[in-house]
Specification:
Number of helices: 19
Largest sheet: 7 strands, antiparallel
Structural class: alpha+beta
Number of strands: 39
Strand content: 25-35%
Shape: globular
Helix content: 10-25%
Distance between the termini: 55 Å
Radius of gyration: 30 Å
């Protein structure tokens, strides 16, 4: 083991990113930031001890922070600080040290010893793995100024020296993949195998064995590392477009920018179904419905993977329904709820697009942390669906199984063992790198078989994609703006996604679109000139974000005077200028308020975010003084247009009652300002639809549209049940009419649905045609309604188009009381319209379900006479007797002679004792071979037991 000394950049996180500077030399540095005196922070890394970063006594009355961000994670051993007028005791009192992989969870301070060296004071400690080093200079510990000239660190670096391997035949691309995997595992040491599974801005690989690296990026709405890539609207806005083709195009653009930066894997997209708007990560999702998430998320994956890259959808599974909206607090979701809602996007998209990687989630299922859930990660994901890729841990999720969070593992060794038992192959965190874990692997304390199986899942993907022969991955140059980034074409595409995502909720007296010749416009609010792009955004280039104020200023005529007043901050109440905003509104013809969330690049700090990862809120009221500002401006009597720039639904009941118009532009990406102006002034006709329900009050939560019928009443004693704005809702500047709805059952069980949609207004526009289904009577309780498909169409004035959908038996199916998937004959209500159907929240709720006018949609009922179900058969094909160390093996053919896809289990009993169980999913007429290994040396009888059938084999 050797020590490599590196000068590092400093980048501040967790509340203090300010104007990051890039390191001037290629020394594994990402960025450098500080919580104060940001103009001089670069001197810490300029290799010149005569220059410095200085902190005044005033600054030192409160905590100041630094974060050293490594380009490549590693085991940090020492930190050397060259500072003036600071002794060892003073340093120990002043400084708290944190080393972490997950900047959201820095953990506890690291104990260290201080020694005087020729180049400064050295902080030494047992090596700690991490990608971020946080230095907290504690307030009120020094009464004089502090001057830091240089900071450097030393890393423990593992040497993957040549091992004298003669057989490197695994490098032969002509060999079968399984043979290559087997040969490579045979020459790897246990230490190399666990080293393969570590993560450092991707998978570093093992050069001495020719194992390639895989560089990754977070890319849910653009390439998020470095600075200069296109920032698209956030995921919740993409969901609001209801436009699959457009999101596919956006994902292709993101993939092209990813390829330009020599990355191969995206830890994207988020396929969580968001069921609680208090949750801060709603902005990263496509909404509250599994079909909407499946189709928009599927379009993203289809587009991104079309460029030869791999995706890593997340967070598997049920991460979007946390208790109380608090991230990763388990709500106790049943298997039925999982299969009806939260597994749907992951399954549907895998079946269509075969993603090769997946990220598991922080939460638990049926009381078991996902990090050790055999049910989720093996039985369902691998055995039922046939997933043959590798699993990535969410950052820190494996170590969370210790007393850090879940209390299901005594230490990291047990946590690592649990994670490897379910084949988690990439550890975003510090568990697989822990010295005690490595020691346990080398000593055989952790199952070698589990380790081999886990490594194999990763190696298969590498071999399958030809990475051993042609690896596109290269380390990111954090200073570089790569070719094709933020091209004019991508800027225009980002603007179009933003346009199509904007939802018009209110337009009283058709106040919109506005004239470009209005005399005076007051633009007010914390978001008016501070566009919020959302989390997982790169460091912002100057002028990259175009605000709503800028968009309005550019859109109006020269006659129009545009006035601006911030009015208040997003969260703080200390700097409000509400009276100035009121005075400005009084002097203007119209007031445009831009209110909502603060959620932006992690490279900006000193702010209180209200949305994004780890930023959940208890209420859905506009934060800080924003509500007070809204009410004060409304009180002027001037027409008020509210633009809600947010990552979640809010309670905007007051605005609904008092504002002339309401637009939701979400977190609209870098072109959000011009796109919003396009809507305001009629250059684009809004057609976005709500991907999440807007409640009237936080007390109604959870409040999603596809609820199940109540056993008593729906309303509260003090409030009605109904939402403020329902799922799928959105207005247009034109009008539409639905006619000739036909739902025709076919002999194969499909229902062909067609409807005519006409533009009855004077303006061209898009209509989002939505298909909903209600199973009126069933053997189990079903949801009042479910979205089954949708299509966004464009219609010129007076134009009519016929829209067609096909409902398959699987679309009509349910899980019965035995958890079998079946289609039951009976009445199905089919509803097609421009929003989710309305209902009366009382008894016979399904009877009242539908549309009130043909301008909203149409309904019909189909009497469905067919029944569908799977019928599983088992047949023992062959047995292979045990020889030496090879156990007795038996292969069983499972077939489905029924007419519907379903999942099942096959249990093995050896002499009446259950020893194993395998899961499967089969389409009609499908077959699968399941193999069992019998460790027992002698036995008399094997029984293969399904839910309804048993097959016996006698030895």
């Amino acid at each position: 083991m050797s020590i490599k000394k590196l000068n590092l950049s400093l980048a501040l996180f967790s509340g203090f990113f300010f104007q990051p500077c890039f390191a001037q030399q290629d020394n594994n540095i990402a960025t450098i930031s500080g919580s104060t005196n940001t103009a001089a922070i670069h001197h810490i890394i300029d290799h010149n001890t005569k220059t410095f970063w200085k902190i005044s006594p005033k600054d030192l009355t409160s905590d100041q922070q630094l974060l050293l961000t490594l380009k490549n994670s590693g085991d940090v051993k020492t930190i050397t600080i060259n500072a003036i007028d600071l002794d060892m005791k003073g340093l120990e009192k002043l400084l708290d040290l944190y080393i972490t992989y997950d900047p959201m969870n820095p953990g506890n301070p690291i104990p260290y010893k201080v020694s005087k060296q020729s180049d400064g004071y050295q902080l030494s400690f047992d090596p700690v793995y991490g990608a971020h080093i946080k230095l907290v200079l504690k307030g009120r510990k020094l009464t004089r100024s502090l001057q830091i000239n240089e900071i450097s660190i030393a890393l423990d670096t593992k040497q993957n020296a040549a091992t004298g391997i003669v057989d490197k035949s695994y490098l032969n691309p002509n060999l079968p993949i399984e043979e290559r995997v087997k040969k490579l595992l045979a020459v790897m040491t246990p230490a190399q195998k666990i080293d393969l599974l570590r993560e450092g801005w991707g998978i570093p690989g093992i050069p001495s064995l020719g194992i390639p690296s895989i560089m990754k990026v977070e890319a849910i709405h653009g390439f998020s590392y470095g600075s200069g890539a296109t920032i698209f609207p956030h995921s919740i806005a993409m969901g609001a477009t209801w436009n699959k083709k457009l999101i596919e195009q956006a994902a292709i653009a993101i993939a092209d920018e990813t390829k330009a930066a020599n990355a191969f894997q995206a830890w994207s997209p988020v396929l969580d179904v968001a069921q609680d708007p208090r949750w801060g990560r709603c902005e990263e999702t496509y909404g509250e419905d599994p079909v909407l998430v499946s189709q928009i998320g599927g379009a993203w994956i289809k587009g991104f993977q079309s460029r030869g890259l791999i995706t890593t959808p997340k967070h598997f599974a049920a991460h979007g329904a946390p208790l109380g909206g608090r991230d990763s607090h388990d709500i106790g979701i049943s298997e039925r709820e999982m299969r009806e809602i939260h597994l749907v996007p992951f399954r549907d998209i895998f079946k269509k697009y075969r993603y090769e990687s997946l990220m598991m989630s922080y939460n638990d299922f049926l009381g078991v942390p996902v990090g050790k859930s055999k049910t989720l990660l093996n039985d369902i994901l691998r055995e039922e669906w046939g997933f043959d890729g590798f699993i990535v841990s969410d950052c820190g999720a494996i170590s969370n199984m210790t007393s850090k969070k879940h209390y299901t593992a005594l230490d990291k060794v047990e946590a690592a063992s649990d994670a490897l038992s379910v084949n988690i192959a990439t550890n975003c965190g510090d568990t697989y790198n822990d010295p005690k874990v490595i020691e346990a692997v080398v000593n055989g304390q952790i199952s070698p078989r589990d380790l081999d199986n886990t490594c194999a899942t990763l190696l298969r993907v590498m071999f399958r994609n030809g990475l051993f022969e042609h690896n596109p991955s290269q380390k990111l140059d954090w200073k570089k703006v790569y070719p094709g980034w933020n091209s004019p074409e991508h800027q225009q595409l980002a603007r179009q996604v933003a346009r199509e995502s904007i939802v018009l909720l209110e337009n009283k007296n058709n106040i919109l679109p506005l004239s470009k010749d209005i005399r005076d416009i007051a633009v007010i609010g914390p978001g008016a000139d501070d566009l919020q792009p959302g989390d997982y955004s790169p460091e912002l280039k100057p002028g990259q974000l175009k605000s709503v104020l800028q968009g309005i200023q550019k859109a109006v005529s020269q006659k129009t005077r545009v006035h601006y007043e911030k009015g208040c901050d997003f969260f703080s109440k200390e700097h409000s200028t509400i009276q100035k905003a009121v005075d400005l509104a009084k002097q203007s013809d119209i007031a445009i308020l831009v209110l909502g969330d603060q959620s932006t690049s992690e490279a900006i700090s000193g702010i209180q975010k209200t949305s994004g990862e780890n930023h959940d809120i208890a209420t859905l009221e506009l934060q800080g003084d924003q509500q007070r500002l809204l009410e004060a401006v409304v009180a002027t009597g001037k027409p008020v247009i509210l633009i809600l720039q947010s990552g979640r639904p809010y309670n905007i009941s007051f605005a609904s009652a008092h504002c002339a118009s309401i637009l939701v532009n979400w977190l609209p990406g870098q072109e959000g300002g011009p796109a919003t102006a396009d809507i305001l002034f009629g250059d684009y006709n809004p057609a976005g639809r709500l991907p999440m329900t807007f409640p009237k009050h936080v007390g109604q939560l959870p409040l999603y549209y596809n609820f199940k019928t109540s056993g008593r009443r729906y309303e509260y004693s003090d409030m009605e049940f109904y939402p403020l704005y329902r799922f799928g809702y959105g207005l247009s500047y034109t009008t539409f009419k639905y006619a000739n709805l036909i739902a025709a059952p076919q002999t194969n069980g499909n229902i062909d649905v067609s409807v005519e949609v006409s533009n009855t207004g004077r303006t061209a526009g898009d209509e989002v045609v939505q298909l909903y289904l209600s199973d009126i009577f069933a053997s189990v309780k079903t949801r009042v309604m479910e979205l089954k498909d949708f299509d966004r169409i464009h219609l010129a004035p007076g134009q009519t188009k016929q829209v067609r959908f096909t409902l398959t038996p699987y679309d009509l199916s349910l899980l019965n009381d035995k958890m079998d998937r079946v289609v039951e004959s009976g009445d199905f209500k089919i509803m097609v319209g421009g929003a989710s159907p309305t209902f009366e929240a009382k008894d016979q709720i399904k009877d009242h379900l539908g549309y009130q006018q043909d301008t909203q949609g149409l309904s019909t009922t189909v009497k469905y006479v067919q029944n569908f179900a799977a019928n599983f058969q088992f047949k023992v094909l062959e047995t292979v007797p045990s020889t030496g160390n090879t156990p007795f093996t038996v292969s069983v053919e499972v077939s489905n002679s029924g007419n519907l896809t379903d999942a099942g289990k096959l249990a093995l009993f050896v002499d009446e004792n259950k020893t194993d169980e395998k899961s499967f999913e089969l389409d009609p007429q499908g077959k699968k071979i399941i193999s069992f290994e019998i460790e027992q040396p002698t036995f008399k009888k094997l029984q293969f037991v399904g839910k309804y059938k048993t097959q016996t084999y006698t030895n």
